[in-house]
Every structure is written in structure tokens, then in C-alpha cells.
Specification:
Arc Repressor Mutant, subunit A, mainly alpha, single chain, 2 domains, 10 helices
Length: 191
């Protein structure tokens, strides 16, 4: 769950089943009742119809929590104290970073670092498109050590410098749900 629309869909599905929720947040739902097998199956079906998935296994849930924490860190950086990503993930998820990193790589086929960079690049694209901040301000906001570091990483990921990207007319961005996932055939044909 990475958007308000997703949260609303989950809340609606829970209400329809007569379930009372305490929290509906990024990738997490805390409900008051114990789910019967029938309720769980119905909730799973209802969520699938809206493009969401009910996760039951602990590793899958942890992977989603890692992704959601990264999205929170990258896309809402003003709300997060500037800190090392690995320390932040370890503290927030209460697991050793090496364990998180190995699990993520095993399940996702990419590293946490690559996933973070993919999200940072998309956020940088958005900030460039909005044209409210200079590249220097974007580098600071996105927790880069320098403009050169941001520019090198951006060029490596996109093939363009931030300045050249800013000059392009076609500034397509990828939806959050697609970042860090391999492109499907239709998407790669469009790009």
C-alpha cells in the first residue's frame, strides 16, 4: 500500500466485512477482531479486485515493510531525520540490516541499495519537474553528500544529467508501484 487510494480501498473492504480497524497504514493493517478463515478469504478476494494483495507469510510482510519504509524515507524526506538508511531500516524494522539486506536480495532479485537509488532517482525527477528547487537544494533535500554525487548517480541511472533531463519535454515518471521492479514487456516497448 503506497497511496491514499490504496488505504481507502483497504478501509472500504474492512468496513464491508464489518471489521473495525485501529490502523491502516503503508503495508500494515491492525484490526480489532480475529479473522475467521471465511473473512480472510473474502478480504483477500476483495483486495485482489482492487489490485492489492493480502500477505500472510512473515518474510513477504517484512519485504513489504522494507519497501514501504524506503518509500517513506525517500518520498517524504522532510519527515525523516537525516540518517544512514541501513541504521534507519534496522531500527524501524527491529532486525539486523544484514538479515534485511540478504532477505530483500533473495526475494526481490535486487539489493536494498538499488531499490533505494531507483526511488531516489524518481523523486529527483519529480523535484526537477516541479522546478521549485535548484539541483543543489535537491541534493541536500535527498541527503546526497554533493551535487556531483547526485549528478553521477542520476546519469548512471537515466543516461542523462539532471540539467539535460530538466530540458526534456517528455518527462514521464514511473508509478511508485513499478519502481524497483523489472519492467514488463509493454513498458519496455514504450520506453
Amino acid at each position: 500500500m503506497v497511496s491514499t487510494r490504496c488505504k481507502m480501498a483497504v478501509k472500504a473492504a474492512l468496513k464491508e466485512l464489518g471489521l473495525h480497524f485501529i490502523v491502516v497504514d503503508l503495508g500494515e493493517v491492525d484490526i480489532m477482531e480475529d479473522l475467521s478463515p471465511e473473512q480472510r478469504a473474502q478480504l483477500k478476494d476483495d483486495l485482489l479486485q482492487t489490485g492489492l494483495e493480502l500477505m500472510d507469510d512473515r518474510k513477504g510482510i517484512l519485504i513489504e515493510r522494507i519497501k514501504n519504509t524506503i518509500i517513506e524515507m525517500v518520498h517524504y524526506p522532510d519527515e525523516i531525520i537525516k540518517t544512514n538508511f541501513s541504521e534507519f531500516l534496522s531500527k524501524k524494522l527491529e532486525h539486523n540490516y544484514i538479515y534485511l539486506s540478504n532477505l530483500f536480495s533473495e526475494v526481490q532479485g535486487t539489493t536494498i541499495e538499488q531499490f533505494i537509488i531507483a526511488h531516489k532517482i524518481e523523486q529527483i525527477k519529480e523535484l526537477i519537474i516541479y522546478d521549485e528547487l535548484t539541483i543543489s537544494e535537491i541534493a541536500w533535500k535527498m541527503n546526497y553528500s554533493s551535487v556531483a554525487h547526485l549528478s553521477n548517480q542520476f546519469k548512471k541511472a537515466t543516461g542523462l544529467t539532471p540539467t539535460h533531463f530538466k530540458q526534456l519535454k517528455d518527462k514521464r515518471r514511473r508509478p511508485l508501484e513499478e519502481i524497483g521492479n523489472p519492467p514488463d514487456d509493454n513498458q519496455s516497448q514504450q520506453e
